[in-house]
Structures are given as C-alpha cells and as structure tokens.
Specification:
Chain lengths: 488, 109, 632
Amino acid sequence: MILLIILIIPFITGLSLLLIRNSAILKLVALISAVANLLVTLSLIFSASVSSYSVDWISFLGTKFTLGYDGISLIMLFLTNLLFPFIVLAGFKRDQNQTPILYALILFTQSALIGVFLAQNAFLFYVFWELALIPVYFILLLWGGEGRRNITLKFFIYTLTGSLFLLFGIIYLYQLTPGSHTTDFSAFYQLNIPSTTQVWLFWILFIAFAIKMPVFPFHTWQPSTYTMAPTQGMMILAGVMTKMGIYGALRFLFPIVPKGVLYWQNTVIIMCLIGVIYASVIAFRQTNLKKLIAFSSMAHISLMAAAMFVMNYYALQGLLFQVISHGVTIIALFYIVNLIGERTGTLDLSQMGGIKLRAPNLAILLLLVILGSIALPLTAGFICEFLMITGLFQQSVWFAVFGGLTMILGAVYMLYAYQRVMLGDLRAGFERIPDIRSLDYIFLIPLIIIILGLGIFPQPLFNMADESVYAMQNFLKPVADSILAIIR
Amino acid sequence: MKEISSAIQLIPLEHYIFLSVALFCIGLMGVLFRRNTIIMLMCIELMFNSVTLLCTAFSAYHSDPAGQVFVFFIMIVAAAEVAVGLSMVVMMKRNIDSVDINLLNRLKW
Amino acid sequence: MVGLIPIINIVWLIPAFPLLGFLITGSAYKRLKHRQAGIIASAMVFFSFIASVVLYFVLRSSGQESATVTLFDWIAIYNMNIPFAFLIDHLSLTMMLIITGVGFLIHLYSIGYMSGDERVNSFFAQMNLFTFSMLLLVMGANYLVLFIGWEGVGLCSYLLIGFWFKNPMNNYAARKAFVMNRIGDLGFILGIILLFFTFKSVSFSEVFSQASAFQSGAPVITMITLLLLVGAVGKSAQIPLFTWLPDAMAGPTPVSALIHAATMVTAGVYMIARSSILYNLAPITLNVIIILGLATAILAAVIALRQNDIKKVLAYSTVSQLGYMFLALGLGAYSTAIFHLTTHAFFKALLFLGAGSVIHAMGGEQDIRKMGGLSKTMPVTYVTFFAGTLAISGIPPFSGFFSKDLILSKAFEHSVLLYIVALVGALLTCFYMFRLLYLVFFGEQRLPGHPHESPRVMTIPLVILSILAAFGGVLNIPSFLGGNSNFSNFLQSSVISKAPEEISHSTEIGLILTSLVLLSLVILLAYRTYVRKALVPAEEGKSIFFFNRLIERKFYIDEIYTEVFEKPFGFLSDFLFSKVENTVLDPAVDGIGSATSGFGTLVRRIQRGNISFYLFAMVAGILLFIIFILIV
C-alpha cells in the first residue's frame, strides 16, 4: 500500500496544482509534496518489512497492476524522490510561464518514473516507461530554448522508436510464457529461451535502453536536447531519466537473456568505452557550457553502462552508487550552470572569465561539485569510479585502462571549463555580477553534503543494494560458467 | 410470371451475359475516360443496368425470385444515388460554373 | 601495549587539527581579519606537530614498532574490506614530523610573506587542507587511504599553484600539474586494483605479510610495482612527467617550499619506501627506477645550469634531488632515500623560503640577472641561504653531505658507472647552486632600489631551518665516522632495505675525498666566473652555441609535449565533434527521418485528388486481383 501512496502522491498533487493560481503557493505545494514523498520513501527504506501491492488489471491479458521492489529498484526510487524536491526547488523565485502546468507536468513525470521503478509487470513497466516521456516532452517543448520544436521532436521520436523495439520484445516474451500468458517479470525470469533466440532478442530489448541512457552511437539526441532544455527539464532528463535506461537493462537483459548478454558482452563494453572516450574528447573543445556538461554526463553514463555489462559484484555495486552520485552531481552542476547563465547572460565559454573575483562563493561551490564529478577521493564519485574500474579490471585490464581514462580526461575538460568561467581576469561587463543568494545555498549545500557524505560514509548505500547485487551476480555466474564450459 | 420467364428463356443465357458485359464495359469506360460529371453519372447508371439485366436473366433461368428482388433494390439505390449525384452536379455547376470532374481535386488535401 | 591504546587512539587528532583549521579559515574567510587566519592555521599545524612528537615518545616508550588505528569501515562489500585506518610506525612518524614541523615553519613564514595579499585567508585555508591531505597520505594504513591523501595533495597543489588566478599562465600551470598528476594517479589506482585482486586486500600489513609467498621477479608483482611507479613518477616529477614541477613555481613561494619541495613531491618516494617489500621482489622495476632516477637527476641538473629565474633553478634542483632519491630507491636503499628526503626537506624548504625572502625584498622580481649584492642588505637571508647551498652541494658537515654521500656510496656498490654519473650530477648541482648564490648575493646590486631584510616572522623560520639543514646530518652519522646510523636503524622496522649495508671504510673515505676535491674545484670555477669576472648570463636566445640554447629552452620538452599531446588532442576533439558527430552520426539519425519524409513526398504524388485517376486505380486494382485469382 505504501508503494501505491508513493506512486500517487505526486500525481494527485500535480492535478491539484492546476487549480492554484498563485504561483508562489503552487511551487510551495509542489515542494511539500516532493519532500513528503521523499520522507515516505525513506520510511520505506528503513522499514524492515517488505511491502508490495497487486490488483488485477487486464485479466484476459494476464496483466496485473503489481508494484514491488528489490535493492535495485530501491536505489532508483530513492534517487527519483531525492532529486525531485531539488528539481522543484530549482524553480523557486524564478519567473516562469504557466507555472501550474509546468509543475503539474514535473510531478506527473515523477509519478511515472516511480511507476517505472516499482512496476513488477513488463506491461505495466512499458506503460509507465512511455508515460514518463509525455510530460517531459511537453516540458521541453513549451519551456525550451532555441530550436526546441525540431529538437524535441527528434528526442521524442528517437526514444519512441527505441520503445517500439521494447514493445516487440515484451510481446515476444509474452507469447513464450506457458499456459494462459502473462507479462509478470517473475514469469519472464522463468523462461528458458534458447540461446540462438537470446542472441537477437538481446538487441531488441537493449536498443530502447541504449537510446535512453544513451550509449554510443545512439546518443545524438542528447547534446542538443540538453542544450535547449529548460533547467528543470534538463535535471529530470540527466538526473533521472538516463537512469531509466540503466534500470531497464538491469531488469530485462540480465535475468531474461543472460546468454545473449554474455554473447554480446564484450561488444557492448567496447561500444560503451568508445563512448566514454569519444564524449570526453569532444567535451574538451565545447564552447557551450551546457553542451560540455552534456558530453561529460554522457561519458559518465557510458562508463556506467560498461560497468553494467561486466556483471560482477564490484561493477554493479559501483554502478548503483554512481546512479545516486551522478544524479546528485549533475543536477548541482546544471543548477550552477544555470546560475552562471542567469548572471552573465551567456553560456559561451569564450565570453566568460574572472567570475570568481565577483562571486567567490559560487566559485567554491562549483569547484566542489566539479571535484565530485571528476571523482576525487572522499567524494561519492570516487567510490563508484573505483569500484567500476575494479569491476572492469576483473574482466580485462584494457577495459580498466580505457575506463580509467575518464579520470584524466574528466580532469582535463572540467578544470578547463572551471578556469575559463571562474578564473582569469574579470571580463568587461561582469563587474556587477552578484554572488549567490540564500536560496541557492539551500539548493546547493544539501547536494554537496550528499556528495561528500556518501564519499566518506558509503556503507548505507552499499547495504541498500547489497542483497540484490549479490543475487544478480549469483544468478549470472552459473550461466557464465556453463557458457565458458561449452566454449572450452 | 411464368410466361415472362419462358419468354426470357427463349434467348440463350450467353447472349444476356455478353450484352451485360458489353454494357458494363461501356459504362466503365465512360466513367474512366469522360470528364463530364453528368455523363459519368449516366455511365454509372449504365453499369447498374447491366447488372440488373444479368440479375433478371439468372433469376429466370434458375427460377429463383431473389434475383428479381435484387433488381428492385438496385433500382431504388440507383434512383437515390442519381438524386444525390445530380444535386451535387447542380451545386458544382453553380459554384465553379463547370461540370468537369478534374476540377474537383480538392481531395488531395 | 595496553597502556598505549588510549593515547594512540587519539592519533586522528593529528590530521584533524589542520582539517579544523581549514574548516575555520575556509568557512569564515570573508570575516577573519588581518593575520588571524595565518595565526589560526599555523597554530593548528603546530598542534599537530606537538601531537606527533608526543606520539613519537609514546611509541618509543611502549617498545612497539607499529600500531594500527581503525576509525571506521570505509568500504566493506563482498570480499572487499577497506577500513579508514591509520598506521603509525617509524616511517610514517618520520614523515609526520617532517610535514608538521617543516610545515609549521612554512606556515609561520607565510604570515609575513603573504601579508597584504587580499586572499590571504583562502591561502591559509588551502595550506591547512594540504597539510591535512599530506598527513592522510603518510598515515593511511592501506593503499586506498593513501590514495585519498595522494589525490588530496594533488588538488591542493592545483589550487595553490593557481592561487593568483587572474593570470591565465598560472591557471595553465595549475591545470598542467593536476592533469600530469592524474596520469600518474591512473597508473597508481590500477596498481591498487591489481594489488587487491592479487592479495584480496589493500592494507599494508596484509599485503606485505602475503608478499613473502611470491618469488622474486614474479610477473604480477613486477606489474603491480610498475603501475605504482607510474603514480610515483607523476607525483614526484620524474621523467617523463616532470615538466609540471618547474611550471608549478607560478604559485606563491611558501607553496613551492612546502608542496613542491619538502612534502608533496616526495610522496612518491614515501610510497615506494613504504612498499619496499614489494619492490624488493621486483628487480626489473628497481632497474627501471634507477634509470629513471639517474636520468632525471642529470637532465634536471643540466637544465638548472642555465635557468635565470631564481625559483626555476630551485625547481629543477628539486627535480634533480628527487632523481637522487629515486636512485637510492632503485638501489634498494630505501632508508637512505628517506634520509635524503628528510635533509632535502630541510635545505630545500630553506632555499625556497630564502628565495621568497629575496623576492619579497626585490618587490616580486625573480630574475637573478637583476639581483646581486644582496649579502649586505639582507644578512640573515644571506647566511641562511648560504647554509642551504652548502647543504645541497654536499659539503661536510652539512646535512646534504651525509645523505648524498650515502647515495653515492650505494651507487658505487652497485656499479662504478652509476657512481660516476651520479657524481657528475652532484657536481652540476654544486655549480648551479653556487652560480645562484653568487649572482644573487655577491657583486654589485644591478637594479636600483633599496632591498631590505624581511620581517622577523619570516627570518625566524629561516634560521631554524638553516640550523636543521646544517646539522640534520647528525641524525645518521655513518659508522666510519664513529656514528651508528641511527636514522637508518630507526627505519629498519618499517622499511626493508635490500642492499648489503656497508662497504669498506677505506673505499668510502676515498670516495668522499674524491668528491670533496672535485666539489671545491667546481666552487672555485663558479667563483671565478660569477664573482671575479662578474659575468652576468646573457639574454635568453642569444647564446651562440646550439647546446646552450638547447639547455636554455629546457631541451624543448615542453614544446614537444605540446606538439605531440596537447595539440593533437585538440585536433582530435575538433575532428570528432565536427566530422564524426556532426557529419556522420547525427546526420545518420536525421537521415532516417528525412528518408521517411522523402518517401512520403514521393507517395504523395499519387494522391493528386483526381477522381478519374482514383477510379482508374480502383478498376486496375480489381482487375489485377481477378487476374491474380485466376492464375493462382
């Protein structure tokens, strides 16, 4: 029941927001709803009992409305509900058009995302998966920047195409289930699909997630979308929606087509690592700050995807840690970028310089977030990169070397960007830039505390996912061993 | 009734078929290649008539009245259709001062 | 042992003091008044120093050789258990005493040196953060905690090199330092991971106790040591990753003294000494270290010969001295390396602070060609700087003599060739240091102005350091001089040296006499060139000889790196973005879209709205259908 409450709170609040005219009150209500949801989630995390919810939905299809969770879902749920209060907060004291609709859409997205992470039924998962796209599409389309119409259309169609493959996959799996068919994940996990089928079914299922993450070469929607997206839309996209891809892959690929995964494992890892280096290299010469961060985010996500496919304990644990860490870091980064944009009126790196002279506190906070992003020890970023590289190392030394290049390349482009923006002599016209206000502190300080806190005390997060990760590893290991036995 | 049937049966069935096929083809060609809407309507009537003729002939040869019933149906439908069709032609004449069918190509929008 | 536990458990206080100082000065940097931040920061480091001294005596009286203090479990998953723990033994105590002791003096000095800078409070915050990280580095009980400090000092070095961030050149130097360190760090972290997979642990005690199961020259150990070496090469500025250190002189002078001379750059030496058991098992790696160390020592010394920036000379000298430490490490004489690290910390910190004092007096001028005759106006600085110069040149009885001589004799033990090359390096060191000394303090003042002695807050640290630099050698008097190598014996418990300890006393004395004769000749040569003839080095780029120009341009190494790495990287970035991303990948996706809409345009032509055509199509379709049925 508690799961249903978590799912419904944002939806109901979102609907009621449409009735409120005063935009300040409205934002406050949205914030309260998001915070309340976070609290309920925390109570769920700390409660000992496992909760689930199930009612019949479309009985002749064998589809139930089943909500449930395991360690992986819990991490994702935590991420969603942790970030949304901040995403709502990011709009405070800012002029926005049509606030009721905007905030309703934001909360609808939250609801749909929660649904994705809680659904225990493939059909339900798919419904939420698509449902999440729609409010985001409108947020991007109505509040986006230059060129939004074409870019949003591209984004929408691209992801929708991916989803279509996923739907094919689900239908295929559905008709494989024994007896009166069903779309429950538990039934899918019981399927013993022949390995030749798994080899192609892998791609059918993977394409949707690869586009959502995005993995090289399916990433081309991302940079332009991030660049034109409104701050809050960007935060939703980069902070939470990219993780949908990861989550989906963990839910669908590994338990359902393990042999397919093993067959394509190295191909996909190499693809991801190419993405890591490709994005990092490109980021170096970007002149638009948002685009630079978009590419940096892509590099991180690609590393996560690579770690996912090595499928050992360290990599998976590091990956789930990075889910939280990356989400927190990226929204803090986007927030600061937005602040800089508001203050200077530009996001062009060549137009900036010396902001630290006028806004030293902003510079310090940006530096802290950047340190988290380039994985300095005692930030959360380090823990996950260490674990993921350890995982990659177990698969192959070269994977670890190329994955580890992010450490160097990340430092190259992030520090370059930092110096271009903050250091150097003050640019003409920047003399009156104000330092950050109290509201910005309220936004940034908690995020930075999370970044540092998780870097120093990572254990609670490990414990949250431990059991599921262990189970997944144990599930995959016999499959891997049997394949190896056949090869030998 | 019987006399009519036997009268019809005086001519072999093939002849009816040939005649109605010929009529149908004439009507079809008219519809396809004429641009005057009124002529097209008339050609459609011609095609109807060929089918009516065929129905009657078969009905007589098989001693099954259903064919005749169909003929009445077709006649009624044809009458209604002509009524609508002609009124459309009138509207067309009023609006674009022509009955050339090729001027009505708005459908592509 | 029981009595030890309560006191040893407060060992976390040692890094906590500077951290507290960082938090105070860092969070209140806008409110603290003139000098307050400096005093707080210095006091915190001083407290740490006192605590370290106390710890030293506690450990000594307990009779224990080492103690591990676990604060909490940092990462504990599956079979990976990495506690946040400190290891206190003789090696880490030595390093802690250097860091807090020398660090305190430099903090004190900075109060005077940085007064008047508007961001002095941030400066002290960052210095304290550095001290904290450096302490973590040497106190960590496993490689990962060491790595925290390792990256932390890298960050602080980045911040402090770019302290005067208005100048883009400083920022470039800072970024260069950080990135080059990161290259090393990647090797280092990969080494740690391999270590973890080999030993299922990264804590020193477990790794070292398990290492004995491996044979000497085991490939996996060689691989681990080489990877760790990559990290050390980056941090300790050895070939090929040394070019960041001279550029790092862009930072304030106390930073150069603390970070880029006394402590951070020696982290690599510390790390290898700490892993001595592993390195002893990897003869190949030791040979690599010898070659790297010696090559760096010579190359940097040669470059230092023709540098005209007072700090650049000292920077190359640091690189060169680090090369000597690496040489000692490669020879398996780890405690010798640590001994040289200690004396080097004394005299190089002294030299940098002296240089800072000169720069302070000259109003920011760093070009030694424009100085001269400062011995009269700045007596304290002059005397202390002289002491430092004698120490680094290896003149007895100054501290450098003892440590450098020990390295030379170890080299002689290994092979005569090594000894000769190392001796040449030492002579070069002597020459460029005396060149520096003569040009700065002797002769006539070459620029108008009234240089003045620095305030007492700056000269007192100079005096203390000069005493340490002069008499630091007492710590480790070799047996042929009647001592008993206290320092080396002290380290024996934590560092397993490889080389057999002694060579015959007569050989040793012979070696010392040879080097002393040669050194005095070199000093004489320098005196004749720079004092008698009062030769002032020519303007850069005006030398006639190719070789001179080569040295002046530092063998074009920076230029080569720019051409080979930086520029191609930029080109690659542009190429990938404009060619691959924007002309292949993105258009490919858009292409699918436009192909669809193109097909739509094509098909749309059929829908002309012509009823006759529709009818024709309909009839044709029916006919085709009938034909199809008839045929099939």
